[in-house]
Amino acid sequence: MRGGWAATALVALLSTLPALVAASVFGVVETPDSPTYLAYAMQLVPGPRPEGAALLAEGPMPVTLYRTIGYPAVLVALQWISPAGWPMLLLGLQVAAQVVVAAAAHRVARALGLSPALAFAAALMPAAGMGAVVQSAVMTDALFGLLFTGAMLLLLRAGLAGGGLGAVALAGVLLALATTVREATPYLLLGLLPAAAIAAG
Predict the structure, then answer these.
(1) Could you tell me how far CA 19 lies from the centroid of its own chain?
(2) pLDDT at 129 over 80
(3) Are 199 and 159 in contact (CB under 8 A)?
(4) Contact in structure between 117 and 159 (CB atoms under 8 Å)
(5) How many other β-carbons are positioned within 10 Å of the β-carbon of residue 79?
């Protein structure tokens, strides 16, 4: 079973540890960007919203003009489910996103022919270091990483398999969702056009 599904399951399990350790020490933390997502989320809650002069009074650039709606919408949903416990729900969601990335990366690494040890190490790298921090913070990185990395891995596997429009279409859906999570995504998509063409066969 070396390098097989048992190894993938172990990778998925181990990928949760860095973020859980960080969260046990620091809790779910806010970064300098976090208030903008939380402020946007508040504006998605039903009720009166600032507009006109009141909207401009929020600052020189209201958050709704430069942040995308995806991540604030996730925050609103979690706050609706548990007004007091939403930070822990967010942590669980973002750790789960890393689990999927780690497992998918391990399977692709094995498909590329990497040895079991190298595939194991490569799949766990995104979960370590800064990855542990962003999973336990109010930041877009974990969810964006799931969507964008998933799309890239789909394109890679499709390219290795000789092409397939289904994989390209699914990658497109993931990238469209990623665009709602991080505003810079459209600029990154340009670099993936050649990969999409190769993956389509």
Answers:
(1) 14
(2) no
(3) yes
(4) no
(5) 20
Supply 124's token pair: 């766990």
Return the residue matching tokens 């998509």.
189
- Give the DSSP H/E element, type plus range, for residue 121: helix 116-124
Q: Give me 30's structure tokens.
A: 């806010």
* Residue 68 CA from chain centroid, whole number: 14
The residue to which tokens 């998918």 are assigned: 104
So what's the pLDDT on residue 174?
A: 93
Q: Is the pLDDT at 48 greater than 80, yes or no?
A: no
- Give CA–CA dist 168/164, Å, rounded: 7
**Alpha carbon distance 29, 51 (integer Å):** 30
Which has the closest alpha carbon to 132: 19, 15, 11?
19
Structure tokens at 117: 């040890």
Calculate helix-pair angle for 86-111, 70-81, nearest 10 degrees. 130
Residue 141 CB coordination number (10 Å): 22
What three-state secondary structure class fits 179?
Answer: helix
Tokens of 4: 């097989």
Going by C-alpha positions, the residue among 139, 155, 167 that lies closest to residue 70 is 139
Q: Which residues contact 92 (CB under 8 A, 6 or more apart)?
A: none
The pTM score is: 0.85
